[in-house]
Amino acid sequence: MEKGAVFPLFYLPNIEFFKNLSQYKDLTVLIEKDEHYPKQTFRNRTQIAGPNGQLDLTVPIQKRINERRNYKDVKISYEDNWQRIHWLSLETSYRSSAYFEFYEDAFLPFYQKKYEFLFDYNMEFFTTILKLIKLPIAFQMTTSYEAIYEDLADFRSIIVPNKASNYQNKPYFQVFEDRNSKLNNISIVDLLFNQGPQAAKFF
Predict the structure, then answer these.
(1) Where is 22: in which H helix or E strand?
(2) 168 phi and psi, to 5 degrees?
(3) Which residues contact 80 (CB under 8 A, 6 or more apart)?
(4) Rounded mean pLDDT of the chain?
(5) φ/ψ of residue 183, rounded to 5
(6) Residue 34: which of 160, 163, 156 has the closest Cα?
(7) Are 202 and 190 in contact (CB under 8 A)?
(8) How far is the C-alpha of 70 from the C-alpha of 100, rounded, in Å?
(9) Span 90-118, pLDDT tens digits
């Protein structure tokens, strides 16, 4: 019988991520800290609902050729002003939503402060979102890398950008649904800005 689960740490994770997480809130939850950083994943990217449909946002990282790095050692790149771009994208997408102004002050610091490491940035953002959606998770960090966990469900490689998911979140109003079709299972911020304190009911 599973005693809990191990999860990756994403940038503004999607709804499916929090649905899975909520199922283990009373069990052991580990956040993977010791893995080698995998490319092309949600660890530095997310998907929101923009005025013209799905909008992909990526946190750029400092590149090193042919060098494997631990996730916790990956540094964010500030060569481009991605923070301004991401914040303007969130404003353009959600300024007219029911709860954007309610949560704006909690989000804005993440687009003003310059974090050195991607893991630290994602972790602080993650804990903030847990509080906003009122999901009480007493998680722990891994202390070493384990390829296989015998008694924990492993979600580290399940939610990936290039792999379609069968998960369907409960329908909720989206700002631009009158001009675009509804977007399923995108970033939790879409659900939060549109449904506010009721967000967790739509997992």
Answers:
(1) helix 15-22
(2) -120, 115
(3) 60
(4) 95
(5) -105, 125
(6) 156
(7) no
(8) 34
(9) 999 999 999 999 999 999 999 999 999 99
Residue carrying structure tokens 């599973």: 2
Tokens of 106: 């909690």
User: 197: which 2 tokens?
Assistant: 């304190």
Residue 78: alpha-carbon gap to chain centroid? 20
Residues 6 or more apart whose Cβ sits within 8 Å of residue 191: 15, 169, 172, 199, 202
| Helix boundaries (H) for 34-117 | 82-94, 100-107
Separation between Cα atoms, residue 91 and residue 33, nearest integer Å: 31
> Over the stretch 18-52, which tens digit does the pLDDT of each residue have?
999 999 999 999 999 999 999 899 999 999 999 99
C-beta separation of 155 from 4 below 8 A? no
CA 119/CA 121 separation, integer angstroms: 5
Alpha carbons 167 and 183: distance in angstroms, whole number: 12
The pLDDT, as a whole number, for residue 66 is: 67
Q: Which two tokens stand for residue 3?
A: 């005693």
The boundaries of the domain holding residue 83 are: 4-173+182-202
Structure tokens at 53: 């449909």
In the chain, the number of structural domains is 1
